[in-house]
Amino acid sequence: KQEVTQIPAALSVPEGENLVLNCSFTDSAIYNLQWFRQDPGKGLTSLLLIQSSQREQTSGRLNASLDKSSGRSTLYIAASQPGDSATYLCAVSPGYSSASKIIFGSGTRLSIRP
Amino acid sequence: GAVVSQHPSRVICKSGTSVKIECRSLDFQATTMFWYRQFPKKSLMLMATSNEGSKATYEQGVEKDKFLINHASLTLSTLTVTSAHPEDSSFYICSASKGGDYGYTFGSGTRLTVV
User: Does B102 touch chain A if contact means CB atoms closer than 8 Å?
Assistant: First the structure.
């Protein structure tokens, strides 16, 4: 059974710092891995999607890496800003179609101090 | 893109009444949609998989008679909370995937409060 873990559960850093959020999964047979952001009381916003054949994806100040063999993904946020404060969730898709259920980690609550 | 619209964003209802939440894929067809429930400061809990033209698949422990799902078209799935009770108060979110490189897109969520 696939399990997804995110560490740390919460993180508070001063503005401007670079930071790394971690995600690990127990079964390396994944189709893709997706990082989401959730603001309080809101839905999920997709940040980055990494297909199983890819090693990393970048969007602006965000960089996500994927190491299937070790069951790990990291989300790197450069030059953090107060607007980055949110909960970050990673999710893996175990299947090969859009009908596959994705499995979420429990999230990392990030707070960027001005 | 891949846009999923969810309505209403907030609803307050009295105990014993039913509430319908809509989830629409605006620019793609979705044969499958997913419904989640989220408790405060917790991750998303998958409730059921909505299948166009057939019965939904419910996760273990989810009452199918309480949470009715209808996926009548390729762009619309509805979740009806029947005979709502205060313990049904929660944040409900739907999602769908366009497939390929699009991953999963989520609706903006519905905050349900049962009084």
Answer: yes
